[in-house]
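=== Discrete structure encoding ===
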Amino acid sequence: SGNTSIIANDGTVTHPAKDTNVTLTATITSNSYSETKDFVVLVYGSESTYTEVASLNLEDASLENSYGCSATKPGYAEGTIKLGNPAYNWLLKNALIGGTDSDNKNGIYAIRMQSNTDPAATGRIEIKENLEINAVQFNAALYGSNAPIKVGVEYSLDNGATWINTNVILDITTAAINEYRILLPETADRVAIYAVAGTGQRVNIDDISLLK
């Protein structure tokens, strides 16, 4: 453990006052060969110190059209929606607003995002407004009975001109809805959630909250 006062080497967790990232380092050795890998773990704080600056839960999307999808964004083609609280512009790439029985969601709709073998064409959800953001929180679950998928988070400091990867990769392995919160290393003006390049697996993303 990189911070034994929060996560001890025996696995004991002591919650700090504020959310804190702790780096855990695993080393596997076999004879003369050794491999080391770091894992960043977010330990939730006992005190809530965030203000929500934007949220997107899709419940203000238009009613469904064909195939149970919202008429606001019924297909995977890249497009921009204006929804949420406040109503901001969000880019959805290789993603749609789904409301079928196979979409795992809270409420009527969730974003259904799809991976692609081409990293430039894989699924992406991006806020198109300039805000002050220190963390992003969202719910995620596999769509239907799809295979596991990896999801990452990027942020921008220059209004989306360039992007910095947080290098936090989430393994979404179940259709059960789980909540994730990712701390940003520095105050950002934009943030994006993306599907790591893959062979067409799909994931539901819901209840996005941008925090300061």
